[in-house]
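quick one before i forget lol
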Amino acid sequence: MISLDEAVTARLESHGQRFEVLVDPDAALTIRRGEFDGDLEDVIAAEDVFEDASSGDRPPESALEEVFGTTDPLEIIPEVITEGEIQITAEQRREMQEQKHKRLINQIARNAVNPQMDDAPHPPERIERALEEAGFQVDPMEPVENQVDEALDELRPIIPIRFDEVVMAAQVPADYAGSAQSQIRQFGELQEEEWQSDGSWVGVLKFPAGLQNDFYDLVNEHTSGEAETRVVKDEDEIGTR
């Protein structure tokens, strides 16, 4: 379950009765679109249906039976969310907007590169400044994933940007290979690996291009800076920089 601070109220009025449930705002939107495939208990703040959630008052069971044909909250909650209205306060809206603003910036930074700077990653701070310059406002009631394309359209007149993936090779010296390779191989999609005759390990991974600096940091951390890395232009090639 989620905390009360994270939840918004979904309200349905029917047959002269009011029914309220407390749910995660993002989950509420996916449930309304019929796209939710998670565990309902993980995205609600209470396994209960209220007449007034703020006071904790509950409707009579007879009203639940009349409107929903059941008294089981886990059956009623999705219907209230789907058929009712999502109620959010001005403070909740502001907090949701701030959270999604940060998530949008991070998602763009993870995937975006600067094509005019040899596909170097864009720092999150640059993306944030460009979004502010563009006047882009995140919709707190829309999933971040659905707003990325619109944000990119607003960013392109301001900064050179495109989404891409990168293939990187890392060669880890024998002294670090045993422990380091298990960490490095989890960073992205492992394309190829090879143990060398000297005990070193070479791995080729594909991941969002905006994470190149994070990859360098990870490799250096686990090899004391002694590993060699390079961008692989030909995915059949294993090599080092």
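fyi The chain has eight helices and ten strands.
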